[in-house]
Records
---
Amino acid sequence: MLNNFINNFIETIDYLEENIKLILKNIDPEIQRNTQEIRIRANRPLIIKCFFKNYYVYNNSQIGLDKNNNLYIISEDQIKKSFENVCEYSVYAYQEEINNGFITLQNGSRVGIVGTAVSKDKKIINIKNISCLNIRIPKNIFNVADELITKTMSKGLSSLLICGAPGSGKTTLLKDIIRQISLGRLGYLYNISVIDERGELFGNQAKNKFQNKFENNFDIFDRYPKPTGMMIALRTMAPDLIVCDEIGSKQETDAIEDILNSGVKIIATAHSSNEQEIYIKPQIKRLIEIRAFEKIVILGSNKKPCEIKKIILI
Amino acid sequence: MKLIGSAIIILSLFLAGKLSCFKLSKRTEFIRLVIDLLEFIKTEINYKKTTMFNLVNNLNKNIYFKNLDILDIFYKNLLKQKSIEISWSEAIAQSQMKYILNQDELIEILKIGSWLGSSSVEEQIFNIDLSLEYLKQNLLRAQGDKNKYYKIYNNFGILSGIALVILIW
């Protein structure tokens, strides 16, 4: 288990420029295991977020909060090289993702991109002078969804909406739910279709080396827009369950409505820092009104990821 | 002794003529292959958005481009995680191309590495079209040169050798 975490870290830093990679490779494995984010900014110190706090990285691969102590400073050229690596030297292939502000790596890590936007007709068509990359390393924590599955699916598969603030562990929980159900946790091998619009749940099924280490019975619709992906899954894969991350648009709620009419269960997540906020969002409110979900799971704060604060029965 | 010397002169000039003919043929072949390569890349970028690594790997395996020796070196350089620009320029530096093509043509082909993969689909296609336009003009010129000089070089080598030998005798 420990090795899997480190592998994810090592796989992720493999995309960075050689010297940054070397510095991060020599960091204490315990810190690597707990690293959530790596921030590289042009002409600024290298920062990693671990144990829910930001730390400077020093030239000797140690971390700390002392800003005068031998900080490792990132050059513009290092940012450029890292960006090229992240894009696999194929900016055209990732243009849409770049315009949306992030690229998802093959192991599911998400690289946020900051630079100067080039706009046309009020729409971003490119980002130039890349100044910062923020790499979020995904956590694959096994059995983290045990409690949630026990509390919500003791009588079989049910439709869930998992709500929480950013960093509260929605995606981590969702991944473990998919893994456990696909392995027959509920006593039956359900057909699961995962609509992974941003490629951050599992990435490409064929390419994701990390995911391929496990036996799974689910299909990943990688980078499909959620409404289209849901309809294609419904028509072609005969799913028992459709899973998607971060719903909220009108097209998505329309697609969910169509799915409900066909009797397929759905598990989705939504951004919401508290219970009240759910009812403020018109599309989520509509889904609750039409009883699209049987249960709503409210997660705790981002200080305690994956903690279930409340389960609301609809 | 004189006879051996004469034979060497004739043979040398004959080979020099043949080499010039070979260069003329190879020049058109190389330019045509680079044009086809760019057309292939254009299609892959425009319709499939294939990443550079996969694209070069596919091209390297493509039997049509087996005579384009830059692809193998380019692919191997990419495997070593070198940038596109470095991989491309090193591939050209190690290729036969540098002995065959004109300086201008080489510079134009070298330039490809500076923009390949580094911009949006529209910009890539714009750059490919510019290079294609230049190379197509040069292909016409190279074909003209080949038609004009091929027979001359082919015969001129051996004939000038014989003429020189007659003069010496």
---
Amino acid sequence: MSSTPVPPDGDAAADGSTTDPVAEPVTIQGHWDFGYTYFAGASASRFFNELRLNQRIMGTHCPTCDRVLVPARGFCDACYVEIDEWREVGTEGTLDSFTILTTSFPGLPEPPTVVGYVTLDGASTALLNAVHGIDLHDFDEAGALLLTQPRVRVVFSDKCEGRITDFAFELVAADA
Amino acid sequence: MSETSTAALIHDVRWEIDYRVRLGRAWSRFMRGLRDRKLLASTCDHCDRTYLPPQSYCEACYEPITRWQECEPVGTLRTATIVYQGFDGGPQAPYAVGAIEIDGTHSLLMHFVGGVDLSDVDAARKALRGGVRVRAVWADERTAAITDIAHFAVAPAQP
């Protein structure tokens, strides 16, 4: 036989190993330090340039399946056809899904923050970005509100640079 | 009128991140096994699938797994790729990475594949085709890490 039984979990000491994998897990130290040049490609370049120059969210329409992909893509991921028909989509939409970030990460804003997938009006796919203006003093309360899949709107920053951080979402009802 | 720009968008990016990954029950035991030159797999009581790397839950039955086996460090290369573009902190390119089905298991272990001359691309592709037999080559210094296996060596072709 190519394999031989060893003691089951919870009895690891019996095979000579005195280390309980639950009480003393193996920890791996990691360090990433590298630079690179990111080229957005033809469709994403135009998508980001539209944010910077025109403060509008653009998608591409697939003639085969009639979906509007946002952010704009050069190929339809369902039909595998090249698409180049550009459409502006709405600046309001529905928060489909979200997460509340509670751990800091280099380069990201200080937690807690919210990121969410929003399907903008006129779009067939959801767009991921920060959701601003949510009261995060009570995570359960914030989560309950966001789970209702509220309407949100796009708010552009004062200085657009052609990055996803040029805009964020905020609740439509906040000032209703 | 709005302006349309199709100018290529290019960003310079730098990542500088320190992190720690705390392995779970199955992977901690797996890594400590490697340190002792043991290849440990877990087996589901319900469907008899054997996982290497081991899992504490069966991905087919969703049942917890507590049964373990020690496997011979030999298997079959199912697929491979040759990496020509190196990565900061990674091995010197070119190098080969493969998905290996250890004998008696029903899963694939990703690891470096050695013992193949990568300077001759066509010959290397032939040597790394799916189905060839491989054997683990243990590292001299072992620290309960995946690199306790230096690589899997392709068995010399049968005459």
